[in-house]
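User: If you would, consider this record:
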Amino acid sequence: MSSKLLDECVRENLETYFRDLSGIEPTGMHDMLMRTVEKPLLEVVMAHADNNQSKAAQWLGLNRNTLRKKLLEHKLL
């Protein structure tokens, strides 16, 4: 898999987002993007890790407690 494909997808969607704003200046974009991307990332990784939090945390490069906190924040537990 090429990381460029993911980069291109994000870039295209951000361009669409700005186009849809029709000149209105956005606020809180970083937080919005992180929340938008983090939930599906956690869902997919947990599914591939067979819901093993230790394995998922290792794959994500996170502490298991941090992963658990994020799963709770996104109502995935």
In short: The mean pLDDT is 94. The chain has four helices and no strands. The domain at 3-73 is CATH 1.10.10.60 (Arc Repressor Mutant, subunit A). The two ends are 29 Å apart (CA to CA).
